[in-house]
Amino acid sequence: MSKGVSLEISCDLPLRHEFLNEVTRQTRKVTFSEFYLLYIHTKKSAIPVILQRIRSFFMKNINISLIITAILLPSLLFVGCKGKSPEDLPKYKKRFRTQIASFENQKEKADERVEDGVSTLTGIQKALENAKNVDAEFKKVYGKWEKVNKEVEDLNKEYEKLKSDAENLFAAMERQTASLNDEKAKTELSRGIKTNKDTYNQTLAKTSEAIGELRTLHDEAKDVIKALEVAVALGEISGVNEGLKNIQDKVTVIMADLNESIKESKEMYEQKMGGA
User: Fold this and answer.
1) Buried b (16+ CB within 10 A) or exposed e, 125-163
2) pTM higher than 0.85 for the full model?
3) Please, what sign has the CA dihedral across residues 70, 72, 77, 81?
4) Is residue 117 within 8 Å of residue 148, measured between CB atoms?
5) Which pLDDT score, from 0 to 100, does residue 237 have?
6) What is the pLDDT of residues 154-201, one digit of tens each?
7) Binning pLDDT at 50, 70 and 90, where does residue 94 land?
8) Minimal CB count within 10 Å: which of 1, 104, 188, 246?
9) Are 58 and 28 in contact (CB under 8 A)?
10) Is the pLDDT of residue 108 over 90?
């Protein structure tokens, strides 16, 4: 037996079964310490050598105790197997949970920018009346809405990440379920996954629509500003109040929809997945 060689039996099932089947077929008496030393000082790459040494040990001895076999074989079966979820579900759950928080944080930033933009837009008429430099006032309000646009685009990026993390999580659950041998459990779990996936896809669809409406809101606000700029140049400021009111009303609805999306995401994670 070579000195200093270590054992590396991984979770390679066919390889492990070959080894264990040979142990069973060649069953003879051998002391536990002898068998254990053989087990410790051999590595996976030398499986043929393992088998030959087992045969040599067994041919020199008689009946091995079934108790020793019962104790030793399970330990060999699981050597090298890491104690984790086959599809690493905790990793995907953690990513999804973290992304919900990131999306919510970005939604708050967008909300603040939109409110600031609407406030500036609403007060522009009064600001223009007292302004010494009308062009500077328009530059200010254009700048506010460009910041709104940036936050909305960042929100959309966070949404895409949320969608991707949800898809990865469901896919991992589907793969792990598909590997089950119990057909009844496989069918029931697959049905549950589909139900939750379909429900959450509806939430994602509503979120995407709300973000799309925020983009439209930005375009509408810029139209109001541009129209107002022309009106001021003509000496006319009236006729923009309706557009401003429309934008304010939309902001309330859009933000309510985004808040609902965040709420539904949290509920799916905390209630369906145990918040683990």
Assistant:
1) eebbeeeeeeeebbeebeebbebbbebbeebbebbebbb
2) no
3) positive
4) yes
5) 63
6) 999 999 999 999 999 999 999 999 999 999 999 999 999 999 999 999
7) very high
8) 1
9) yes
10) yes
Handedness of CA 21, 24, 29, 34 (dihedral sign): positive
Evaluated on CA atoms 28, 29, 34, 35, the torsion sign reads: positive
E strand or H helix that includes residue 235? none
The answer to whether 113 touches 141, Cβ cutoff 8 Å, is no
Q: Which tokens sit at 180?
A: 């089950």
Q: Which one-letter amino acid corresponds to residue 34?
A: E
Token pair in block for residue 43: 């590595």
Q: Is 221 exposed, middle or buried (0-12, 13-18, 19+ CB in 10 A)?
A: buried
Closest CA to 113 of 153, 157, 147, 137: 147
Distance CA 24, CA 27 (A): 5
- CA angle 210–215–217, rounded 5-degree value: 90
Express each pLDDT in 8-60 by its tens digit: 333 444 444 554 454 444 444 444 444 444 444 444 444 455 556 555 544 55
Distance between CA atoms of residues 28 and 60, nearest Å: 8
Alpha helices in 82-182 (DSSP H): 89-122, 124-130, 134-178
